């Protein structure tokens, strides 16, 4: 039955690819002053907007985004997060992995097929550019004639973010200096690009009058207008730089039905936890007293944050959209309660009838110990004591075009498959906090099954372990399990869910815990796998996988211009 | 006699080139917090410093600067201002003209010969990057055994600048927006990288405490310590973003002896006017009352500026260097008095015995009308109603490597050789303020003599004309004359100084006036000629010359990576 369904789904997919429409976007990317939280700041916009335009498409459509870099002196790359880029690994938009950066003045065409319905996102994937405001939603609908396993009246995208007042250059300068200057907690949380900084908190004003202007319409609360009695599918996306969030709608339950493009066996909650890089669809029925509005809120969890909650209006028509709810915004969950977050992680399973069963066994197991380290006095994040750096020539180019002659382009020594499981104490600051930097990568045998165990540990601070949302490019993985403490290769795999595991592209690793994933290395290309916290990736918390590079087609010249590709392009 | 001298000088030059030393620098360029005027701001530093290290060399030396771009997401290019780059046009460092930008993470080697003694500078030549702090001095001494035509005891470089608190991204965003947001007057003037913003002027403080800190040693006044009775050669360099300056030393006369690497027939002044891109050597004797210190000051001329004077200490040893002079700083000249500035321009002539006579006639005359215009609602600067833009493929690459097949790489239509001399009223806002954008260039016949007349006019504001310092890359030019009003091709050339004109690489065009230049197109390459005001060039005030492109040697691959050079480099 499942096999038949898979076959049918594949068939539908094939038909759609044949019939898919081309959706052509022209985007101009530049710096403009914006006041998303009432504080005026230079933000990166797409066609004047941050968040950028929502991409609306149907399964099988071909998306073409013709992107012009008008940032002046700053390069650019955009990643289409959750889109697997089957057959188009050069369109993944990961600077240093799949392409050279897009130069100021240049126009770059991303072209790819959205081969699965679901909720995805796009965002800058270059330095810490994402948190300057370059992000947006992707919503892919099912083909005509195909129905989804749940019903709703309206479909809405809501993208959640956190927001800093300092520029990415200021933040990066602190992170890469000795002594280390941490970016700190964000100043605001944004809901669909709108937040509200308390201007009176600027006890002292900035150089310019009007830098904080509470009456600026750009920072009026985001409003979702609902018709009483109707059911809304809300496609939640978190693109936060740092924060793990809880999202809730005052007085309303929400039923989780989709995660990262996969149907979830429905479960109902008062609030949903969402980590940077994740998407969820929730169903909400407008069934409360319609004479008033309600709060939609986001609040920070897993960090003892100073960032105030994000607020928006769940507006019952025909009340005025900007009428404040008569109640105080509901409090979010306790920031340090891990149990409810772990419980939600465990609750997310594939929906009956939509289960893609994982291979029963894997060909390779790699354990990734996540640690904070010191390298030459600088603070870095590492995986198995290796802190990731990018080479001058992106891997896809180096591997595909050097024809086995890439030795000089990046470190050829394979990175470690694990750490010292017996002696390492994940509950303490490491005895030796040193690590090394490397641009070496994991080469995967094509079509093999790989297990990844993400192991969390104590940071450089006593009694502290952070939550890391890890995101895999080019694939979905099965989430086989979560656990507390140190992963035990002898006993923990017996607890894996091989029956109905959800497939995702981003997954949290809870503090002092582990998360086990399985994926099939069946997508020719070079793919990043990294913590989705912008500053953590910047500080080295990631790896790259290669598989089937010999099957990759000819790379477009627009991906080149760096490393070994500074020469004349011969068609 | 002059011919013999020229021959001897050439001979000495040839010997020096043969014997020249290699001076190898390794520079790391990054963003760091600096407080040059007591206000903390992200600045671009070289090896941690802004201004960067002074390059000290001897005529004939080969300079190698190995430059690593650690700016994160921002590209880079450095121009060696005043160095003609004979035989090395690819080392001129002009992004879009002679090279592709240097990518973050890349290392680029500039290599060139300093073939003439004198005072030069280096600075970023990419977007508006220069005014983020990326600049420094170059001082080239005469060969051993050669003496200069004046005597001094000590030799010092002093680089003058103006300073903004906003980032280059913020400034550029305003300049390229509609409505136009002008960058405004700089907040401070810096002398050798140090200024002093009045913290109490921040009536309101910034978000962060300590943003303005008057006790920060980074902004203690620059001090030039002098020994009573000794004569100092001060090599003054102006790298201002906007401001024309007057420099003076309280109670001391100064004798001008060098300009842009050429000996000047000495003349003595109380204050010297210096425009962005110019260098002067002045001789100052420490012959005043040695029991006290004196002020060195810069002040803005030609604009009704709000920028307070720059202050430094002329410190008589053994007084304490930081002891303030007992007097008020001397007032600068009236900002709007054109006459003294024109008089100084006219006073600068080649030194007897060091005259390079210009060719008696020219082969081509090009008149450049400087105007402020509107294009599609945006404010731009233009030359003959053409506002300059850069192509994707730098000219040097496009011209040299396309082998006559560069048609598609930039506009092939020659730009205009002049404007409507009879009908254009330079004293009024133009009737039609429209202009067009173009990346077309002036192709010069190799070894011909070219006259350039720079004609100033009214801006978009009634009764306003601005001073523009124009800088030529790859050549020195003879300054044949200056005049007020509209240049008259029939009568004004008769007034040219063909006897002892100074050679320079940067020259002011005074308001409502003209400046006439002559140069020989004998340096194979592609060379920018532009207003040295950073925002004016950004807004299109420049042109490019090409000459002898077929004589240019093989371009290094490091210059490539943009436009048509995004392909594999084949050695």
Task: List the chains of the largest interface with their residue counts.
Answer: A-B, 49 and 49 residues
How many helices of chain A? The count is 5
Distance between the termini of chain A: 48 Å
Identify low-pLDDT runs of chain A: 8-17
| CATH superfamily annotation of the largest domain in chain A | Cupredoxins -  blue copper proteins
Helix content of chain A: under 10%
- The count of domains of chain A is 2
Can you give a write-up of this model?
The structure is a homodimer of 571-residue chains. Chain A is mostly beta strands. Chain A folds into two domains: 2-347, Immunoglobulin-like (Sandwich), CATH 2.60.40.420; 364-559, Cupredoxins -  blue copper proteins (Immunoglobulin-like, Sandwich), CATH 2.60.40.420. Chain A has five helices and 32 strands. Chain A has helices spanning 2-19, 168-175, 339-347, 395-401, 534-538; strands at 22-34, 41-46, 55-58, 62-70, 78-81, 107-113, 118-124, 135-141, 154-163, 188-191, 223-226, 231-238, 244-249, 254-259, 262-269, 271-274, 279-285, 294-301, 310-316, 364-375, 378-383, 386-388, 436-438, 442-444, 449-455, 468-472, 477-484, 503-504, 506-509, 513-520, 525-531, 542-547. In chain A, the strands form seven sheets. In chain A, strands 10-9-12-17-14-15 form a six-stranded mixed sheet, with no helix packed on it. In chain A, β1 and β2 form a beta hairpin. Mean pLDDT of chain A is 94; it is low at 8-17. Chains A and B meet through β1 and α2 of A and β1 and α2 of B.
């Amino acid at each position: 039955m499942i096999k038949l369904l898979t076959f049918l789904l594949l068939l539908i997919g094939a038909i759609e690819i044949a019939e898919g429409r081309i959706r052509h976007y022209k985007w101009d990317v530049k710096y403009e002053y914006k006041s998303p939280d009432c504080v005026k700041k230079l933000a990166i916009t797409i066609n004047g907007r941050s968040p950028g335009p929502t991409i609306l498409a149907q399964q099988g459509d071909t998306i073409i985004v013709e992107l012009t870099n008008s940032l002046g002196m700053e390069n650019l790359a955009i990643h289409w997060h959750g889109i697997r880029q089957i057959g188009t690994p050069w369109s993944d938009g990961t600077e240093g992995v799949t392409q050279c950066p897009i130069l100021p003045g240049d126009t770059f065409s991303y072209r790819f097929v959205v081969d699965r319905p679901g909720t995805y996102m796009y965002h800058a994937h270059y330095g810490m550019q994402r948190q300057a405001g370059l992000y947006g939603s992707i919503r892919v609908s099912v083909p005509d004639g195909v129905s989804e396993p749940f019903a709703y009246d309206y479909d809405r995208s809501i993208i959640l973010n956190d927001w800093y007042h300092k520029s990415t250059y200021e933040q990066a300068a602190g992170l890469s200096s000795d002594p280390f200057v941490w970016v700190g907690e964000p100043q605001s949380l944004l809901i669909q690009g709108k937040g509200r900084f308390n201007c009176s908190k600027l006890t002292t004003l900035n150089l310019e009058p009007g830098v904080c202007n509470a009456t600026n319409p750009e920072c009026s609360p985001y409003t979702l207008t609902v018709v009483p009695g109707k059911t809304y599918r809300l496609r939640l996306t978190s693109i936060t730089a740092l924060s793990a969030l809880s999202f809730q709608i005052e007085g309303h339950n929400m039923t989780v039905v989709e995660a990262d493009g996969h149907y979830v066996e429905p479960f109902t909650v008062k609030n949903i936890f969402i980590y940077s890089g994740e998407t969820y669809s929730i169903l909400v029925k407008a069934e409360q007293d319609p004479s008033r509005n309600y709060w939609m809120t986001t609040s920070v969890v897993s960090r003892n944050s100073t960032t105030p909650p994000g607020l928006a209006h769940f507006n019952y028509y025909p009340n005025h959209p900007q009428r404040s709810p008569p109640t105080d915004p509901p409090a979010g969950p306790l920031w340090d309660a891990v149990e409810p977050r772990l419980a939600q992680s465990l609750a997310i399973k594939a929906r009956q009838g939509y289960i893609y069963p994982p291979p029963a066994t894997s060909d390779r197991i790699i354990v990734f110990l996540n640690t904070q380290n010191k390298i030459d006095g600088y603070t870095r994040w590492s995986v198995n004591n290796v802190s990731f750096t990018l080479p001058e020539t992106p891997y896809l180019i180096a591997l595909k075009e050097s024809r086995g002659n890439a030795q000089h382009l990046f470190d050829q020594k394979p990175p470690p498959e694990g750490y010292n499981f017996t002696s390492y104490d994940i509950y303490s600051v490491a005895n030796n906090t040193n690590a090394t930097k490397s641009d070496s990568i994991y080469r995967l045998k094509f079509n093999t099954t790989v297990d990844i165990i993400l192991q969390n540990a104590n940071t450089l601070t006593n009694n502290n372990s952070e939550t890391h949302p890890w995101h895999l490019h080019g694939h979905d993985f099965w989430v086989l399990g979560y656990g507390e403490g140190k992963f035990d290769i002898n006993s923990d795999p017996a607890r894996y869910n091989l029956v109905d595991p959800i497939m995702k592209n981003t997954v949290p690793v809870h503090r002092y815990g582990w998360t086990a994933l399985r994926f099939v290395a069946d997508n020719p290309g070079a793919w990043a796998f990294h913590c989705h916290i912008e500053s953590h990736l910047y500080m080295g918390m990631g790896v790259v996988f290669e598989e089937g590079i010999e099957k990759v087609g000819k790379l477009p010249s627009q991906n080149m211009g760096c490393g070994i590709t500074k020469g004349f392009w011969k068609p």
